[in-house]
Amino acid sequence: MKIRNIHITPVAVPDPPLLNAAGLHAPYALRLIIEIVSADGISGWGEIPGGEAARAALETAAERLIGMDPWRLNAIDAALESLARPDARGATPWDQRTWVHVRSAIEVACYDLVGKSVGRPVVDLLGGAVRERVPFAAYLFFKHAGAGGELGFGRDEAASGWAAARQRAALDPAGIVAQAQAMIARYGFQSIKLKGGVFEPQAEVNAILALREAFGPEMPLRLDPNAIWRVDTAIAAGRQLEGVLEYYEDPVRGQENMAAVARALKIPLATNMCTTSFDDLPGSVAQQSEAIILSDHHFWGGFRASLDLARFCAAFGRGLSMHSNSHLGISLAAMAHLAAATPNLTYDCDTHYPWQDGHDLLATPLKFEAGALELPGAPGLGIDVNRDKLAQMHARYLDCGLTERDDETEMQKVEPGWRFQSTRW
Ligand code: GKR
Ligand code: MG
C-alpha cells in the first residue's frame, strides 16, 4: 500500500471564553485536520492542535511521506526524525512542541487508513479492547458569559439545559456547581475535574469544597492549577483537600517542586506538565515527582508511544489518566480507541468535547452515554468526516484572524494589561 496524497486543513471551532492560568480561550479553538489518501483511494484521518508552526511542519512532513507505505510506521518515524527540529514544551498549560504533534497526526491517520483497508477497528490494531466503554470526566472551567464563535460573548436567549449553562458565566463556587450539574445532567459524567490557576487559590479550594458538598464523597474530584502556584501555596491548599481530591494535577511547576508537594501531602499528584516526554522519565523516577501521568497521544507522539508510556507507568508504579485540549471528534475517537486498548488506564479521561457541544466535523458527532463512549465498531477510527462541515470550519479559520493559540492576548481584551506569569501565587 502507498500514500498517494496528504491533505492538511486548518479549522476553527467555536470555543467559549474559558479561563485558565495562561488567560482566556479565544472565540475559536484552532485544530489541524490531516487526511492521508492511499493509492487505492482509502482516506485516514488525524487531528492535532492548530497553529501555523504545526501546519508548516506537517506540510514538510507530508511532502516526504508521499509514496511511503502507511503500514511501515517505523520507516515513517525515521523519515520524520530526519526532518524534526528541536522544540520545547513551553510554560503554557498546553504543550507547544511541534514535531511530536506531527508524528501523532500522521500515525493516527495511518492507523485509520490501515484499519479501513483490512476492515478492523483501530483498537484491534492496538491489541484489542480491554474495555468496551471508555469513561470520561466532566471538565469544568471558570468562564465568562458567552459560547464563543459567532455568539461571541453574547447570549442565545432561546437556549436551555447544557446549551444555556455553556453560555453562562461561572466565576465563583456557586457558578461552578451549577456548571457541573448542567454538564452532568446532559452527559452523565461520573467524575469531575476543575481547571484552576485562575483566581486566588482559596477561591479555587472553595469551589472544590462546594463541589464536594453538592455531589458527596462518591464523586471523584480533581483540581488542576496548571503549575502556577508556589510550593507553600500548593501545600496549604492541598491540606484542605486531603481526603477530598482524587488527584491534584500540576499544582506547581517542575519535577522538583512537584516532588516537594507530593512528600508533604496525602493526595496523589498528577501531571501533564512536568513529565511529558520520554526524556522526562528518568527525572520522574529519580524525583518521584508524580503518582499519575496524564497520557495524551497528541503530545507523546501517537498510539504506540502512548502504549509505551503505559508500560512505563505499570513498571514504575505510576497511575495513568488522559489529558485533553479543545478538540473535535477525530481526536475524541482516537482517544477512545487508545483508552480502550490500554489495560492500566485507571482514571476517567479528560475531554473538552462538551464545550464544543455539537460543533463537529463528523457526520454523526460522538455521544456520551452515562459519561462514557462506546467505541464505534466500524473499521479504522469508526468515524465519518463530513466534508461540507470541514469546508465550513476551514472557511471560519480563514475568516477568524487567529493563527496560533494566544490566551494572554485574549485575556487582555477583558483585562487590559493582564500578563501571564509562570508562577502567580
Ligand atoms: O483548555 O485551557 C485549557 C487547558 O488549560 C488546557 O490547555 C490544558 O492543556 O487541559 C489542559 C490541562 O489539563 O493542563
Ligand atoms: Mg492538566
Q: How would you summarize this macromolecular structure in one to three sentences?
A:
The chain has 425 residues and is α/β, with parallel strands linked by helices. The chain has helices at residues 52-65, 73-83, 99-118, 122-125, 161-167, 173-187, 201-215, 231-239, 255-264, 281-287, 297-300, 303-315, 329-340, 353-356, 387-400, 407-414; strands at 3-14, 19-20, 23-24, 28-38, 43-49, 133-135, 138-141, 192-195, 221-224, 245-249, 269-271, 292-295, 319-322, 372-374.
Structure description:
- The chain is built from 16 helices and 14 strands.
- It is globular.
- With 425 residues, the chain is α/β, with parallel strands linked by helices.
- The strands form 4 sheets. The chain has a 7-stranded parallel sheet. Strands 1-4-5 form a 3-stranded antiparallel sheet. Strands 2-3 form a two-stranded antiparallel sheet.
- Helix 1 packs across helix 2 (73-83), helix 5 (161-167) packs antiparallel against helix 6 (173-187) and helix 6 (173-187) crosses helix 7.
- It has helices spanning 52-65, 73-83, 99-118, 122-125, 161-167, 173-187, 201-215, 231-239, 255-264, 281-287, 297-300, 303-315, 329-340, 353-356, 387-400, 407-414, and strands at residues 3-14, 19-20, 23-24, 28-38, 43-49, 133-135, 138-141, 192-195, 221-224, 245-249, 269-271, 292-295, 319-322, 372-374.
- The protein is 39% helix and 16% strand.
- The structure holds D-glucarate and magnesium ion (MG).
- Residues 224, 249-250, 272, 323 line the site of magnesium ion.
